[in-house]
Design a protein that fits this description.
8-stranded mixed sheet; 11 strands; M1 Pyruvate Kinase, Domain 3; mainly beta
């Protein structure tokens, strides 16, 4: 299980841009990302497998296109219970705070194919222990409720 992409954006409503690395700040979010605000939705994650399911429907989509901060591989994120702790690398610790979200009106992907994976399969986390994250970092479940 690993991090495939790290993505940020400067403005809301935009696709996120893939980065070589990013600083996750505890109890805040990703440094420089528009969604970093210290709420319970400090970090968004979506599995590459979910993105690939949209590709099979004919969408030309890539990591960051769903406004997720971290794209992962090998872990079915949306099946994790709220309260699950995740570890990235050796020291970054996250706590799952929300599964899915309400899709905003005018979502380009939903308009294109009639559905979108982020509302059902994206997850949000609080950053308990921060650090630098980059593609290729390991991802694992530390504890589940």
């Amino acid at each position: 299980m690993e991090i495939v992409a790290v993505s940020t954006s400067k403005r809301k409503g935009e696709k996120k841009v893939n980065q070589a690395s990013a600083l996750l700040k505890a109890n805040y979010g990703i440094e420089g990302d528009v969604h970093a605000d210290g709420t319970h939705r400090q970090l968004s994650l979506l599995a590459l497998e979910s993105i690939e399911s949209m590709r099979k429907l004919g969408c030309d989509v890539n990591p960051g296109d769903f406004a997720e901060n971290l794209t992962t591989r090998g872990l079915t994120l949306h099946t994790l219970p709220v309260g699950t702790h995740l570890l990235i690398g050796d020291n970054i610790e996250l706590e799952v705070t929300q599964i899915g979200k309400e899709c905003h009106a005018g979502c380009a992907i939903a308009k294109q194919v009639g559905s979108c994976v982020m509302p059902k399969e994206g997850i949000f986390c609080r950053i308990l222990q921060g650090g630098v994250v980059k593609p290729g970092d390991s991802l694992r479940v530390k504890s589940a409720l």
